[in-house]
Amino acid sequence: MEVIKFIENEYPSVLVNLPFGKSKISSIQLNEALMNSDGSYISDEARLIDEKIFYFVEDEVLYFPENEIITKILSEI
């Protein structure tokens, strides 16, 4: 588990081996923190962070075993 720091908050993230390569997954709360209400990034830093994240999930999903995280993501994309 890695932590992404953004505006004095910490958000969990994990690296998972999806069928098409390793991808970073993080929390929906991070995604919400990165964006304005109009869907634009709140800063250049926010854009750079978002470009490194493949998918956002509920916090509890990040603590699932990797195979369960992968199954959840693949069922949603």
Tell me the fraction of residues in β-strands, as a range: 25-35%
Helix and strand pattern:
EEEHHEH
Number of helices: 3
The low-confidence parts are none
Give the beta-strand count: 4
* Overall mean confidence score, pLDDT: 96
For the report, how would you describe the main beta sheet?
4 strands, mixed
Integer count of domains = 1
Provide the helix percentage: 25-40%
N- and C-termini, Cα separation: 23 Å
Q: Tell the overall outline.
A: globular
The secondary-structure class comes to alpha+beta
Query: What does the radius of gyration come to?
Result: 12 Å
Structural features, described:
With 77 residues, the chain is α+β, with helices and mostly antiparallel strands. The chain has one domain. 35% of the residues lie in helices and 32% in strands. The protein has three helices and four strands. Strands 1-2-3-4 form a four-stranded mixed beta sheet, with helices on both faces. A hairpin with a 2-residue loop joins strand 1 and strand 2. 10% of the residues are buried. The mean pLDDT is 96.
Secondary structure topology:
Layout: E1 2-6, E2 9-18, E3 21-27, H1 28-34, H2 44-52, E4 55-57, H3 66-76
Parallel strand pairs: 3-4
Antiparallel strand pairs: 1-2, 2-3
